[in-house]
Fold these 2 entries.
Entry 1:
Amino acid sequence: MSDKLVIFDTTLRDGEQSPGASMTRDEKLRIARQLERLKVDVIEAGFAASSNGDFEAIKAIANTIKDSTVCSLSRANDRDITLAADALQGASRARIHTFIATSPVHMEKKLRMTPEQVLEQAKQSVRFARNRVADIEFSAEDAYRSEEDFLCRVIEAVINEGATTINVPDTVGYAIPELYGNFIKTLRERVPNSDKAIWSVHCHNDLGMAVANSLAGVKIGGARQIECTINGLGERAGNCSLEEVVMAMRTRRDYFDLDVRVDATQILAASRMVSQTTGFVVQPNKAIVGANAFAHASGIHQDGIMKARDTYEIMRAEDVGWSANKIIMGKLSGRNAFKQRLQELGVQMDSEAEVNLAFAKFKELADRKSEIFDEDILALVSEENIAQ
Ligand code: KIV
Ligand code: ZN
């Protein structure tokens, strides 16, 4: 099995399906350029048949991006596939991602099709798409709630028609990590031609487990592609978050042992760009990209960090694009952290007694003000004439 994990970013397609997150052609192109700098393997640029604007955005991205595969979603019908292929014509590397639902509830209530009709349409659409591009991804929408025997038949058939990636979405975020991992493993074991395709996970976050489920799909199930979005943007509670899943892979390489091409130092820039473009604010305590992700506020932690960063840091802020970690000066800060900040600010104290006096003033202020900024410290020490 390959040691390489494909990172498939769908910020511009599934992320955009988040209510209120729609983007213009130029905004999408700007984000696509940042995704290329981030070195994601595949950029799902949109859904060509969904609107003229999306068609044009995919076309512009396909004509611009050189270092990542550019992909368009399409339903499993000839018109959608033709539009996807047309939009992707200028791409250095193009992928068509075609899907049809396979769960009983979706087939009966949404598609109003029998399982046999769904199977035929899945086969026919992959065959049709193969005439236009070589790289074909097939998704069985709502795969996780599908009947296993039927799903195996569909997957075997579309691989025979030429699908090169098989995506097993947890469309409604219903999965539990261990169960989802075992589900992928069972499918791979039961489908006779399973090794002819790369298996992919696509998890939604309705129960807050999209990242955990994706990791289990890789570790237990043997999937080698993760579909994810910047900041976890996406329908309802969102999709698997790219920054979290990539940094989990990196930080716990001892456990996952897979190669990920992403340049993690571009993560923060991508997060900020997506947040500013969509207006979706990143919560301060969001892993990796939240304002507090590398901030230390308590005295005990600050003291530990000053002695050795790995006391309270499992990864470096700089590795994901922050200029440095942050020591928050406030009422929980200790004397050592205060003294270090004075040094960083170029404040010279003549004696330990002066440091003690300044620290006492700082604590008084910190009781009144939740965060003490550098300017506050400078004002405090100069006002009181503690330092020259
Ligand atoms: O969640 C889902 O099932 C999807 C498919 C179209 C891949 O987004
Ligand atoms: Zn989705």
Entry 2:
Amino acid sequence: ANIKSIKTTPYQDQKPGTSGLRKRVPVFQQPNYVENFVQSIFDSLEGFEGQTLVIGGDGRYYNDVAIQKAIKIAAGNGFGKVMVGRDGLLSTPAASHIIRHYKAFGGLVLSASHNPGGPDGDFGIKYNIGNGGPAPEKITDAAFARTKVIDSYKMVEAPDVALGHIGTQRVGDMVVEVIDPVADYAALMETLFDFTAIRALFASGFRMRFDAMHAITGPYAHRILEEMLGAPEGTVINGTPSQDFGGGHPDPNLVYAKDLYDLLMSPDGPDFGAASDGDGDRNLIIGKNRFVTPSDSLAILAANAALAPGYATGIAGIARSMPTSAAADKVAEKRGLEMHETPTGWKFFGNLLDAGRVTICGEESAGTGSNHVREKDGLWAVLLWLNILAARKQSVDEIVRDHWQTYGRNYYTRHDYEEVDAAVANTLMDDLRAKLPGLVGQSFDDDLTVAYADDFTYHDPVDGSTSSKQGIRIGFTDGSRIVFRLSGTGTVGATLRLYLERYEAADGRHDLDTQTALEPLVGLADRLAGIRERTGRQSPSVIT
Ligand code: VG1
Ligand code: CO
């Protein structure tokens, strides 16, 4: 084949964050920026000669250009086959499933997830390993080291691949198979959930609204919810993926999915509302007059999973990221299940899932998933909720309140300060870190006594690796907690995330307004870290 080795010069800023390399589109458009990163990933891997690579993305601006480059570089490096979704599309969970289902060597997921897209928006590239999950730090660290010294990449010179039609083509000696992005994923969902019961639920007049936010879940939701499960046409809105997500911000939270929230709070709104993000791995769940916090959703899904056929024999354990509320811990405790606390980002769940130690995982950032793939999965969470609603024949609100009466309620909120000066944010964290040892045992506001204060270090129980500096946690004797963390997915300045939690026992007060319930903790967090004074911000940019 016509393999060319092409000279290049390295970039120094290609460090993968929480979920791959994410930058503004113009950064990716620099000469050889994509080529260098993809080649550096391949240089950090071994044994892929003749093997299959899966490639797909959320369809955002630059997806089409980057995919052609990635395919030709894969061919230049000796992959035997590339499987790619039609039009270059694959949701992140579907990509994970395709990698596992076809026993591929790994995959490239092209997305910047919940970040806006378009010529001035964000783009991203992430490598997933053969288990279908994001590459562990060992690989991302090696790839980053390689990007700093890379001097050439290999590619096959060939015309662009036609991605619009399902079927097989060749690029040099490598086979390129264009596949239906939805079919295999939909078939997997059918094995996990009681489609007959969910179909009956829709047939009984149950009304739902799913907001695909002009992103990747549109085609998946149309096929599964409307075609397979019989939800009325119009159930799925904003269901056609667009390169800039209709000019919107494809983050399913109470700020960017406010219309959906308002609809569910209105007197004649539907019974159930849900939304997903740019690449389809997040989920927002709102019942009629009841918003479900992602941390509660994780706990409720774990507690009720056995109602779905795929989990009928019960779950092995639960894992949650450190900033996620302890609601799931209460379920694990009561049920005698293994419980794990990991750093932020799905890559830390892979080992626990592979080892069979946990079945369900989740993050406070609207990510929930299970051992069916190795990514969080937005539609999976929506379908599990539907399965539970169909089985319990209760409303979302009834199920949530019943859960609190059994396990207690973890009031929870996250305050984000976006695009803060990076130096200011780092100093804030450093100064706070220095204060931690002196905090233990101190009491604030009469009733808040610090039980522990540390910078979270994770010891992976499966491979023995250690990840330090994963976020500052200040826990109180009554179960309340304040967490400070800097985001690893932002592309401009720094984003300071403040996570707040307070526990109310099963017989406690469950009807307080969340922000009011957490106000004392917000005030204390500001006093401890000097957020307002240092950042000059009077209030957070986003509250979820
Ligand atoms: C954020 C979330 C984290 C999530 C990550 C990727 O990371 O907090 O929970 O795993 O995004 O999600 P950070 O470092 O910005 O806090 V996705 O849907 O953007 O791939
Ligand atoms: Co995402």
